[in-house]
Amino acid sequence: GAAHVHAVDVSPDVVAVGTANAREHGVADKISFYQGDLFDPLPEGVKADLIIGDVSGIPDELAAESGWFPDGRGGGPSGAELPQRMLREAKRWLKDNGRLLLPTGSLQDQEAILEAARSLYGSVQELVARAIPLPGDLMAGRALPALVREGIVELKARGSRYLWNAQVWEITAG
């Protein structure tokens, strides 16, 4: 297991829940929680063998309409902007040959994120992909149909349902 985990989230509520869970499960001495933007709150000199870059990557309009995020914030207009920034900033925090696990999905401009990852790191390998049913009420909204028309979001129709694709990528620092 990890010697120590540094966990960051922009939401103070998420940090509070994580802290309480760590205490409840007897691992509070192995995890430091920080509230802030990406890597900003981390102490200088921290270097990671592994970064799990699970940042919001859905377009802002969809985030606001979906209710999936309490503050309504997404990953930028196309959903790629925040993950791309995280990829750029992560290089400073990864050890040589360190790994970054990055979830992406077809509810964002996934190709722009993967292009940034390949440009910055070179080695990008898909670990897992899964089709996930989309809640029907999202297609009845304004944001998602517009994002599909613009080519930012990709969905597959299966019968009366729509599916989006979620993937996790392993990125290795050289």
Written overview of the protein:
This protein is α/β, with parallel strands linked by helices. It has two domains: 1-46, no CATH class; 47-172, no CATH class. The protein has six helices and seven strands. The protein has helices spanning 12-24, 60-66, 81-90, 110-121, 136-139, 143-149; strands at 5-9, 31-35, 48-52, 94-105, 123-133, 156-158, 161-172. Strands 3, 4, 5, 6 and 7 form a five-stranded mixed β-sheet that branches. Strand 6 and strand 7 (161-172) form a beta hairpin. Helix 3 (81-90) runs parallel beside helix 4. The longest helix has 13 residues, at 12-24.
Element-level helix/strand string? EHEEHHEHEHHEE
Q: Percent of residues in beta strands?
A: 25-35%
The protein's oligomeric status is single chain
Question: Helicity level, as a percent range?
Answer: 25-40%
H/I helix tally: 6
List keywords for this structure.
single chain; five-stranded mixed beta sheet; 30% strand; alpha/beta
List the helices and strands and how they pair.
Blueprint: E1 5-9, H1 12-24, E2 31-35, E3 48-52, H2 60-66, H3 81-90, E4 94-105, H4 110-121, E5 123-133, H5 136-139, H6 143-149, E6 156-158, E7 161-172
Parallel strand pairs: 1-2, 3-4
Antiparallel strand pairs: 4-7, 5-7, 6-7
Helix pairs in contact: 3-4
Concise description?
With 174 residues, this protein is an alpha/beta fold. It has helices spanning 12-24, 60-66, 81-90, 110-121, 136-139, 143-149, and strands at 5-9, 31-35, 48-52, 94-105, 123-133, 156-158, 161-172.
